[in-house]
Specification:
Number of helices: 9
Largest sheet: 6 strands, parallel
CATH architecture of the largest domain: 3-Layer(aba) Sandwich
CATH class of the largest domain: Alpha Beta
Order of helices and strands: EHEEEEHEHEEHEHEEEEHEHEEHH
Radius of gyration: 21 Å
Number of domains: 2
Strand content: 15-25%
CATH topology of the largest domain: Rossmann fold
Structural class: alpha/beta
Distance between the termini: 44 Å
Length: about 325
């Protein structure tokens, strides 16, 4: 008589692209995943080389790769996803805490292309699902408009608010522009703090003007600037200057995604910012807010049921 009990699925395997080892290790611990190995390097001519070095046959596989500075990462990522399929992986998912090209969501000048759609299509062709953290959704209402595979969005507001409650006295949450209103409002609600949103006019990549309302009533509070992405930091730098001239304390600056292009981080400190803090979606010295647990919680809805069941019993970091 045959045993009617279904054989449990093998443990999913998690593979880190270079620079993503810490998050892959944390997810493996939280979800009881097997840590896989892969070689990802460049040939002398600059072309990418990938090789799967762990058994992945009949397993669910997930790649961990945050996609800041994406042009150096996309080709090896896509090749790695193909290599996993060719090695027999049953499915291939992507954990990309930072998604690139989301701000290029419309044509601003004749002859431009909507990069968000094309990058989304490339990635969707190679993976079966996607998990990311607070993508920059402005004119794009939902990730499904640019990604054709199932996706989960992890929201950092709760983790940011928890850090603010623990480290900032009498916070006043400030969104440096209208696009940041959703982030500042969500964080302020969770932090039980008041918030205001400023107005911004952008004339170029590094030419930004910010208007600040009357903040006299908040003089006893600690201003906390919150934004989803800080790249050139020009918006925050302009805002910091206005707040300091208004007599407020040096503001705490919080970024979900610490892109910090070129000298932006040093420029922000020089402008008079107080503590500069970020979530760990992109590795940076400002990382103070870990998101592995939140990402793991979202991943449980995408992993095979056997793995998700075990993951719920896995130890917490």
């Amino acid at each position: 008589m045959q045993n009617s009990k279904a054989r449990p699925l093998p443990r999913p395997v998690v593979i880190a692209m270079p620079g993503n080892e810490q998050l892959a290790d944390e997810l493996a611990t939280l979800l009881w995943l097997e840590r896989g190995a892969a070689t990802v390097r460049r040939f002398p001519d600059g072309e990418s080389y990938v090789r799967i070095a762990s058994p992945v046959g009949a397993r669910a596989a997930l790649i961990v790769c945050t996609l800041d500075r994406p042009d150096d990462k996309l080709v090896p990522l896509l090749l790695l996803a193909k290599a996993l399929r060719e090695a027999g992986a049953r499915s291939v998912g992507l954990v990309a805490p930072y998604l690139p090209y989301m701000r290029q969501d419309r044509c601003f000048q004749p002859g431009e292309t909507i990069s968000a759609q094309h990058v989304g299509a490339w990635i969707s062709q190679c993976v079966d699902w996607l998990v990311t953290v607070d993508p920059h959704l402005h004119r794009i209402a939902d990730l499904s408009q640019v990604y054709s595979v199932p996706s989960r969005v992890v929201h950092a507001a709760g983790s940011v608010a928890q850090w603010i409650r623990a480290h900032v006295r009498e916070p006043l949450l400030i969104g440096p522009d209208e696009e940041s209103a959703q982030w500042a409002g969500a964080v302020a609600k969770d932090a039980h703090a008041p918030f205001v949103v400023l107005s911004k006019v952008r004339r170029g990549d590094r030419d930004v003007e910010v208007s600040v309302p009357d903040l006299e009533r908040w003089r006893s509070h600690t201003p906390v600037l919150v934004d989803d992405i800080v790249s050139t930091a020009r918006t925050m730098i302009e805002t910091v200057g206005h707040l300091r001239r208004a007599g407020l304390a040096a503001p705490v600056c919080v970024a979900v995604h610490a892109v910090f292009a070129q000298a932006a981080f040093d420029d922000l400190r020089t402008a008079g910012a107080g503590e500069i803090v970020s979530c760990d979606t992109i590795r940076h010295p400002s990382n103070r807010i870990p998101l592995a647990a939140a990402i793991a919680a979202s991943l449980r809805t995408l992993l095979p049921e056997d793995a998700a069941r075990v993951g719920r019993r896995a130890p917490r970091l």
